[in-house]
Amino acid sequence: MKKLIFLLFLLNISLTFCNTKIYNEENYKFPFKNRFTSTAIGTPPRLQYKIKKKPVVSLYKLQINKTNNIPEIFWFAKKNIFSLAKQKKKAPLVYIFSGTGGYYNAPKTKFLRDVFYNNGFHVVSLTSPSHPSFLINSSSYGYTGIIEKDSKDLYKVMKKAHEIIKKQIKYTDIYLVSYSLGGTHAAFVSKLDDKEHYFNFKKIFIINPAVNLYTSSIILDDLVEKYFPNKISDVNNFISNTENLFFNIYPHDHINLDLNIIKDNSYNLEGLGLTEEKFKIFIGLSFRNSITNISFISDIKNNLGKIVPKDTKLSKFDSITKYYKKANNMSYIKYFNEYVLENLKKDDPTLTKEKLIDMANMMSITDYLKNKKNMYVAINEDESILLPEEVKWLKDTFKGRSFIYPYGGHCGNMYYKQNVDDMLSFILDKKN
């Protein structure tokens, strides 16, 4: 009997080990070996997972916060919009959370939507709590960035969305798939649902989650601070000098560089004047753009008077240019300290900076995640927004439940065919 128990123990260890798939430089052919290049421009089109059919998408609007509590200047975002791509027959259902600053139709969210739709799923896409519109119409505390609070708000939105879509479709099991900050939200939402048992997710897959939002934000802040000591003037000069490189900056996605302009397979970007330094700057500026937006909205919504004078009633016809300029180039650390922490302490004087940081840290639920057997994670060894010890924590916490890639930066290899095949092999229970 003891021998049998021991053999079963060894078998369990073996199975756990086999469930982690680790790639190396020889068997992983993603073209970009620089983490900032990967993060900035993503996967070349010809190496992406191919989408055969685009779904017909229905949009729905949710009333979360009372409209009379939303300033008139934000008339355009009084309701929370989500989308549904539905199959014609009974099918599994997957929820997708957008990443940092992402709307329900952010490019990466749409890509995941199309992947799962093409594999027979109903798909619901939701806006990130870090998107300005969510902050306006769905935040319970008037700010964003405190993962515990944001995840509760997102879970509330999710349940309201489900009450609508369950009348529109016939579904079997429910899944949850998310990336970047959305992956972090998914971990906390999963924990909430394990208490409430509303969705009872069959499987959860998270891609390149932010482990500690505070430390990741410091990394992103530093990408701007290092190169732009003179703030606005330096930023404007940089953008004007590089606009001929076919860039557009998205607050929630990759820089939009047309990789089809590279005619060979070498992907020699330096020949186009695209250096690591430029990629770092664009990544940092993209993040700063998001912080500017949420700082501006938080100031008005909470009547803080830091950007717009207190008790100013802005109508939808008023110009906001002078106020927006004041908010421009806001760092996350300043937003965290002077907006979130300073004002939440008014309601809870015992609140400390350390406690608030912990509320935005996946490590605070380590024990839960270690035992969450139906949750898998995709990890890039060269992750550009995590500290090395955070990458190690992910690998240790999700031991036996992960796909580990040597390259990809932050979500840069998300569209890469091998990565998508791995994700589907877990979700669909098939060998890859």
From TrEMBL:
Keywords: Signal. Transmembrane segments: none annotated. Coiled coil: none annotated. The keyword Signal applies. Residues 1-18 form the signal peptide. The keyword Signal applies. One of its GO terms (cellular component) is membrane. This is Serine aminopeptidase S33 family. The lineage of its organism: Bacteria, Fusobacteriati, Fusobacteriota, Fusobacteriia, Fusobacteriales.
